[in-house]
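Progress note, project year one: complex with adenosine-5'-diphosphate.
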Amino acid sequence: MNDETKYMLKQLAFYTFIFVVVAWIVVPLIVATLYAFAAPKDYYDPNKVIPLHFTAKYVKTILIHLGAWEAIKNSVVVALLTIAISFTLGIPAGYAIAKFIFPAKDTIKLSIVALRMFPIPVMAIPLVILYIRLNLIDTRLGVALAHTAMALPFVVLITSSIFAGVATELEEAGMVFGLTRLGSFLKITLPLALPGLAAAAMFTFVMSWNEVFVASVLTLSHRTLPAQILSIMAGSSGGAAPDYYKFAAAFIMTLPAMLFVFFARKYLITMWGISLK
Amino acid sequence: MKIKSEFLPYLLILPAFAYLMFFVGYPLAQALYLAFTQNGAFSLATVRRAISDYYFWTALKYTLGLAAIIVPTQVILALVLALVMNKSFKGRDLSIYALVIPLTISDVAAGLIWYSMLSPYGFLNKLLMNIGILDNPIYFFGYQFRHMEFLAIVLAELWRATAIVFVIILAGLQMISNEYLEAAEVFGATYWIKLRRIVIPLLKPSIQSALIIRTLFAMQVFGIVWILAGRDIPILAGEGFYQLTEIKDYGVASIYALVIAGLSILLGALYIKFMKAEYLEVKR
Amino acid sequence: MVEVRLENLKKYFDKGRVKAVDGIDLTIKDGEFLVLLGPSGCGKTTTLRMISGLELPTDGKIYFGDKDVTYLPPKDRNISMVFQSYAVWPHMKVYDNIAFPLKIKKYPKDEIDKRVKWVAELLQIEELLDRYPAQLSGGQRQRVAVARAIVVEPDVLLMDEPLSNLDAKLRVMMRAEIKKLQTKLKVTTVYVTHDQVEAMTMGDRIAVMKQGKLLQVGPPAEVYLKPNSIFVATFIGAPEMNLLDVTVKEDEKGLILEGESFEIPLPEDFTPLLKDYVNKTVIMGIRPEHLIVEGISEILHVKRRAKIEGVVDFVEALGTDTIVHAKVGEKIIKIKLAGNVNVPIREKIKIIVDLDTMHIFDKQNEKAII
Ligand SMILES: Nc1ncnc2c1ncn2[C@@H]1O[C@H](COP(=O)(O)OP(=O)(O)O)[C@@H](O)[C@H]1O
Ligand SMILES: [Mg+2]
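Model obtained:
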């Protein structure tokens, strides 16, 4: 009986801990979502911990009158451009690191890791001057180019590990049976790597979607979503935005990220080298 | 046209590498130029202007202070979580999915989400008041509650960015062969001895990379602070942003950028020097 | 040093779907070198892990001497183990790897040093003490694993296929060294392997396992000469024992084994053993090394013999031995002849069977009759 009680108590403590941890992540998300749609009178009622009356009014206002819908479109364009450019540049490099052995490979890999760590503000502030000169300031392409610089090291490293996971023998078999190296890559390696690449693309999308500093600095009228939200919610002008607008804004920003986690959760995990049971 | 295959890998890497070098090299050169010249000649005027500002030193202090509190807490928290999630239990996968959600949430959104938790009419205050723990709300926001704003930022950052440390450490943990632990167990080690003598030393590379990543990103912290505290809590990236967008002082903004870069390089180098895992470096 | 006793030991995985170990009774004597032998997947590792305490049994008991250790954690059992992949910790130098078990048991510093030096000398790895495992070869790492396992003088030493990751030459060498070491230390040892040569050369006794059950336990010679089942008979010895379906017939002179293309009259003393099998099919088993080819190899001591005819189908010359594949009826029989013998292919030969080394198995339950 003694051992059994001890065991039960241990189990209980363990699951309580798990519950607390999961709640710590999930509760704020639920609360923010509920509050995004809460009627102000419920929100300002100190007795209503959980709102009971809902309205989509503020989400709509932000989307339509405060420019969030336009900003979403900008964000999508910027993110897609970022994926396009960073994958065009990154896939060949990732492939080379995965499949070739050459001197200086480790050095190159390491310097790409180091470049991944390069602080974004450092890049963005001086870039303004160049962009003014090149007429890239306040353009979506300009932001995408900067986001590419941020995403590219990640794309190179992650694609190289994806390609490394595709057996070289498969590709060599293709070459033995008459394909060129490029043909073999396109017909064999790429299709096999596709699911991984799709997850990497989604993650790149999220990176660009979430980035706020570069986008805020480099744009004024073509703001991406986080930049737009930041400019209406914070700083000198936005401190006075009513709370329920803030929650509506949080919801709009978080929704795509949540959908990403939901649909790509397995890849999101395995991308980091974690295996599930 | 036939490319000699020994050049092929370099050719494949070159575009990406050149792109990155440009986007790092050019801004760095430009920033140095903006920071240290005036009318085309070397000058420290801009530097003097930057460091004579009260906000410069405060921003430096808060940026380092936030990092000093947040990063170690995150590593310890993530280590505990990873150790727990590495056991097998019912609902493990779901719990892991929940824990990595913040990986995809932006700092701006995280700031707003925590605002909904901590504002005077936020969830936490209303909950605590309704179950009778509080009589009046705790105020987290506003210049006069700066310490609470600091705490709110810490909470929100812990919530948002512990996930990345967690995934790195969990991946490292899963790479440790179970036989290493079983061997220790057979030779009489308790859970704590295994943790201290086997697990943590073997996790050193993972902990090191997590520390570097988190510390360097902490030097650039921006969105979450800007949303939750504005300039009540000045930080380096925020001041650079402010100088650039409000004051239009490109020189001073560049100095903030350079300070962030300098701190990043310095701290990265320190970690690599003092946290190296000797056993990984020995020659065969 | 203790005696280890397993009583009806069971381990089921996946809610009983996988019966990894299915009721084992076995006593390992104090100081004995017992080899657990069986094909991969038969439950050897699981058995070993239950003895170590890394795995808890589904049912049954484990005793060390008189003490019931079934549910004791590994740290309270005073055991040591050599893992298949060695599990030499990569972040500790060789010295610290070996010293680890001593440090855990809180030996004083100078005692630790003395013991590490002693065991390093025993295994000839003194020069490696200051190196990291990454700087060692597979064989050296294996020695470190063994050193670490014996440095505390455990009550029971467990080894799980410790030689399977070494190349053939090193394997033969380490086989002898481990055996010598164990004889010297007299520690009760359970050694797991799927390699029957290892089992034959190292074990004081061999326990043969199949699908979670023990088939036969005995000294190597006994298991080799008197296998109790077809499985044990074929698992031990290379090339494998020849098996032929034969029918037991009876005529006025006694019993006869009738094969597809031959008849073997049996002496009288076989009659009581086979009388229940008259007119039934049984399986005759003969080891290739117990067969002789008339005219080619010497007939030395074979007292009671039978002849069967065959045609040479194929010859493997191994240098030290020659394996002749002969077709007898539709069946191929292997004959192992010492030395390098020249046997022409398609030649008719007479194969001599030594009736005293012949085995007969029940076709239904595959148990040995003779
Ligand atoms: N943890 C486990 N979960 C499920 N099945 C297992 C586990 N460990 C071993 N088994 C199964 O038990 C059987 C015996 O395994 P094992 O003892 O490792 O065999 P051996 O060491 O003789 O090769 C195998 O069928 C194996 O698949
Ligand atoms: Mg095994």
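Chain B has 13 helices and two strands.
The interface with chain C takes residues 177, 179-180, 182-190, 193, 197-198, 201-202, 204, 277-280, 282-284 of chain B (CB under 8 Å).
No further modelling is planned for this target in the current period.
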